[in-house]
């Protein structure tokens, strides 16, 4: 079982998890756009109990476009978004792929919340969903 590690920009917060993610997705919701400061957020779905976090974090309690609660965990020092937990996927945590030490082995298998996607983003051949899949 492989170990994946990552952390925030300043290095104050580090995390790791064992095993392969259950999902690798690109979220285009407006809240992920605002949190990432970009057109989308690339995320890895990992069982919540598999993630070990060291260092102080803060949590912003949000309601996503779905109206369901979202916990957005970030470094209080540098502001890097690290992990999100969403009400629609209990027991899962969504690691922000941009904070991985090496994200090269993960490729998104779906685009979600594409109804909020920026018009210049091309999802290519990857399956795309207007909101959450399922």
UniProtKB/TrEMBL annotation:
Ranges annotated as spanning the membrane: none
Occurrences of domain CENP-V/GFA (ranges): 4-107
Regions annotated as coiled coil: none
Keyword vocabulary terms for this entry: Lyase, Metal-binding, Zinc
Listed InterPro entries: CENP-V/GFA, Mss4-like_sf
Molecular functions (GO terms): carbon-sulfur lyase activity; metal ion binding
Classification via Pfam families: GFA (PF04828)
Family statement: Belongs to the Gfa family.
Protein name listed in UniProt: GFA family protein
Source organism (scientific name): Qipengyuania soli
């Amino acid at each position: 079982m492989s170990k994946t590690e990552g952390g925030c920009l300043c290095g104050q917060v580090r995390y790791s998890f064992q095993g392969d993610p259950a999902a690798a997705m690109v979220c285009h919701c407006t809240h992920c756009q605002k949190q990432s400061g970009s057109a989308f957020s690339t995320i890895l779905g990992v069982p919540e109990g598999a993630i070990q976090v060291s260092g102080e974090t803060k949590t912003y309690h949000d309601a996503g476009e779905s109206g369901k609660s979202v916990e957005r965990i970030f470094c209080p020092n540098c502001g890097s978004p690290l992990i999100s937990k969403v009400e629609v996927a209990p027991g899962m945590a969504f690691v922000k792929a941009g904070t991985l030490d090496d994200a090269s082995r993960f490729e998104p298998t779906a685009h979600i919340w594409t109804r909020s996607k920026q018009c210049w983003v091309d999802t290519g051949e990857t399956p795309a969903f207007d909101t959450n899949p399922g």
